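Hi Y.,

Following your request, here is the sequence exactly as I used it, all 86 residues.
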Amino acid sequence: MPKVTVRAFATLNGLLGSKTMDVFTLGSTIRELIDLIATEYNPQFKDRLIDPKKGEVHKFYRILINGRDIDFLDILETKMKEGNIY
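Below is the corresponding structure, written out as C-alpha cells. Let me know if you'd prefer a different format.
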C-alpha cells in the first residue's frame, strides 16, 4: 500500500482542511487517488478538481508529481509510487 504526500493549494486545501497530508492508497493511479480523497475526506474535492463533462482536470488546476506536471506524463492514469509528492 503506497504512502504518498498530497500538497493542496488555494481552495483545495480549504476542502481538505490541510495544506499537506499523507495518504495510504490501494489505488495505483492519480485518478484512483483523487477518488479516495473524495471518498475519505471531502467529495467536493473531486467536484472542484475534475471537470465532470470531460473527466479531466480543470484547466486552472495543475497536478504535479515530484514537480512534474501530469500533462507530460500519463495524465490521470499516471502510476503512483511510494514516497511521491503530489
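The longest helix spans residues 30-40.

Thanks again,
Q.
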